[in-house]
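Cont'd.
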Amino acid sequence: MNNYFKLIIFGLVIIFLIIVFHYISFLNPLENAVVRLLKPLQEKTYALVLEVKDFNNKWLTKRNLIMENENLEQKLKEFKVSSARVNSLENENNLLKEELRFSKESPLNMIAAKIVTGVSDSLSKSVIINQGLDKDIEEGMAVISGEGIMIGKIYEVYPNYSKVLLLTDNKSKVAATIQNLDKTTGLVEGQFGLSFSMTNIPQDQAIAEGDLIVTSGLEGKIPKDLLIAQVDSVNQIESEFFKTALLSPIISLDNLSYVLVVVP
Amino acid sequence: MWYKILISTIFWALIANIQITLLGGFGDYLASLNLLLVLLVALLFFIDFKWIVYFTILAGAILDIYSSLPFGIFMVSFFIAMAVSDFLLLNFLTNKSFYSLVSVGLSAVIVFNMVFLISTVLVYLFGFSDFFIDRNYWLGLVYQVVNMVLFLSIWFFIVNLFSRQFKPNFIRS
């Protein structure tokens, strides 16, 4: 057997051993050391990427911003009118709650985390955050942006860092509810790191463009009513049992630098 | 020997960092540039294959640590892609012409993607999760091929400026 085939067999054996050692957590200290050593460099590189993107957004989309600003001003006027109505409804609601002796809703417990780096390949989309087992983070916990919008959930946890599967990742699935009259439930699933959609919606449910999608609370570690996205369009084929709603994200998942992990 | 291993380990860690964070952060086109594979193909023409084996496992392992795909997929894909490339280079492409470089580069991209897809499909077939491929994946593959040819052409041109390592004797003879 010549040297080439000896090297190939040797290489495959080494790869096999590395994979086995990884899955029995034998390599955890080494993997942690690699992540820890590369963390400062990756943080700086990631910050640079965000700065360049920010520059691009500020200068090249200026025209769009002016148009958006005009639209927002119009919406603000409408919002002021509805805000007054909401305030009076809230007061009324508080009074009714007091009368019914509702217990006060407990606020969410959250752990702030910095994104060390984003990881993107042709089949997946995730980020690495700088908090892990040391902060009692567990698999399946929801991760939200500073504005309170869900961006993904914890996928793997290590002593000092965790992997967060973004909602757009192909493997991502979150139980969700549409804030329509029927309170329709379904699954928000990622689509190749690019967008996401809500599946398993019964045909008889009424869904409109712009309806908000929130978490349903059916997953043990994800609290109810975390905002996820809004309905962009509905894909309906009458011969099928379920229909699919294509969703548009409320914030961009590509420009995040800090996130919050929601502890149930 | 140990000095070489240390220096090369740091080098590949830096390149992996550029691929994961820098290229991954700048949209679909740049994210499709497989910088590690380009460098491995470029080095295949100059250095001993045992070093290529080490670099391949190292680069794949670093990507696997960060990837949300099942651990080992990048290592296996890089390794088989480079093994096939070296086999082609030794047995079918007898000189170091531009055509050889581009042929090896293209075969590396195709084999890498084939192994990457097959191993991912197999892993998901055993029930870990769902898996679909759409036109974006194939578009990404086309971008990878274009990037590979582009960067290897630049690499060939630069090396030809400073040395005669890539002898264009195939073209002239």
